Amino acid sequence: MMTTRWDRRFGPSAMIWLSLACATAVGAQAEGGSPSAIAPPVAQQTADCARPTYATDQLVCTDAALLALDTQLAEMITVRGQAVEPGTPWREEQKAWFDRRSRCAFLADHRGCVAAAYQMRLVELRALASPPGAGNHVRCVPDLAVTITGAGELGSRSLLDRSGRIALVAFPTGRGPWQPFVTWQARSKTVRISSLDGTTIASCELERRDL
């Protein structure tokens, strides 16, 4: 049986849902009625192992290590109420993160991409929920932050604004299968903060060269 690109990304269940939706609409029109709407799959924030539709959900739900990461993430979101604030441009909202995580199915290293996605997401949410650590004073253009923390988990660094709130959490620039939403790169006393598409968010000058 030939496996299509659709199957690899969304899994066979999504094709079944689409076929049912089309069949229902055509049947209703043939009987002279208006097409009946079939609700699309419910928007997800973490894996749905009861009805795994996406190829990445199917991977997560059959891999003990990935499932443990997904369970941790679901607990942080639903039980602890930890989530990225909506409308914050340099923090990826959970639904957007989930959609990107699902697109790991297109990559050769599907599992590596998914594992890194979960690990970085957990680090980011933990950082946002915890008091920021000590850091260096910086002068950023534009004036996004005044402090950058020392290296945390997975090399992450938080940028704090003038009120002491975390403006963003950035990860080192790398070449792994998963691309962080925000990255940092240090050269001498300058730290460049970039978005997912490579656009510079801010260029920050350190007061001390000990980053």
From TrEMBL:
Residues 1-30 form the signal peptide. GO terms for cellular component: extracellular region. InterPro entries: Lysozyme_Inhibitor_LprI. Keywords: Signal. Transmembrane segments: none annotated. This is DUF1311 domain-containing protein.
